[in-house]
Specification:
six-stranded mixed sheet, five-stranded mixed sheet, alpha/beta, 4 helices, Purple Acid Phosphatase, chain A, domain 2, globular, 172 residues
Length: 172
């Protein structure tokens, strides 16, 4: 199963809508997970045209009341426990290193987070930490950024970062 991961879109403040390159990167995904700082419900509707969407509430998502948005999502997909949040890498890592401190029986297999606008794929104690970065505002610069593809197969998870600028260059 392929899952599209996106975060920190900041639409319409930074961009009017999702870049076309997001649709290209997410071609064939079965689920999209947004790790917060969405800003407008319309982003979730755009993503829903690609695949079903779940989102974590970002620290700037004050006005969003969409039922797809929760503080966190804990879901099981293909036998793997996924945890979607907007929180920092430090907090996300603590979910793996100290799950009981967060009310979890065991560490999630995958923690997807946002907030930093910096892409990360990192293995910690057998779990995978993934921050897809920002599609529209990477490193707090207004330009094409990154998303990620999470692949789940045979009880294992792997993530790859997609540079949207690379897709834009191919289309020129």
């Amino acid at each position: 199963m392929r899952i599209g991961l996106i975060s920190d879109t900041h639409i319409p403040e930074i961009a009017k809508c999702l870049p076309d390159e997001v649709r290209e990167a997410f071609s064939g995904v079965e689920l999209v997970l947004h790790a917060g700082d969405i800003y407008a419900d319309s982003v979730l509707d755009e993503l829903r045209e690609i695949a079903p969407v779940l989102a974590a509430r970002g620290d700037d998502d004050y006005g969003i009341r969409d039922k797809r948005v929760q503080e966190v999502h804990r879901i099981t997909v293909h036998g793997l426990d996924l945890y979607l949040t907007h929180s920092s890498q430090f907090w996300a890592r603590s979910l793996i290193e100290q799950p009981q401190k967060h009310g979890l029986d065991k560490a999630p297999d995958v923690v997807i987070f946002g907030h930093t606008h910096r892409e990360v794929t990192h293995s910690v104690l057998g779990s995978l930490l993934v921050n897809p970065g920002s599609a529209t505002f990477p490193y707090y610069q207004q330009r094409l950024g990154t998303v990620a593809i999470l692949t789940l197969e045979n009880g294992h998870a792997r993530a790859s970062i997609v540079q949207l600028q690379d897709l834009a260059r191919r289309g020129e």
